[in-house]
Amino acid sequence: MEKSQINLPESSPEELAAYVGKRVIVHGSIYKIRKMSGFCFVILRTARHMLQCVCDNKELIEGMAEESCVILTAKVAGESRARYGVELHMISIEYLSVPEAQMPIVINGKVVDTSLENKLDFRPLTLRNEKERAIFKIQEGLLRGFRRFFEKEHFTEIHTPKIVSEGAEGGANIFRLDYFGKEAYLAQSPQFYKQMMVGVFERVYEVGPVFRAEKHDTARHLNEYMGVDFEMGYIKSFSDIMEMEVKMLTMAFELLGQEYGEELALLGVELPKMQAWGNVPILKFSEAKRLVAEEFHREPKECHDFEPEEEKLLSELIKRKFGSEFVFVTHYPTGKRPFYVMEDPDSPGETFSFDLIFRGLEITTGGQRIHEYGVQVAKMLERGMDVKDFDSYLMMHKHGMPPHGGLGLGLERLTAKLLGFENIRQASLFPRDIHRLTP
Question: Under a CB-based contact definition with an 8 Å cutoff, are residues 405 and 241 in contact?
Answer without folding.
Answer: yes
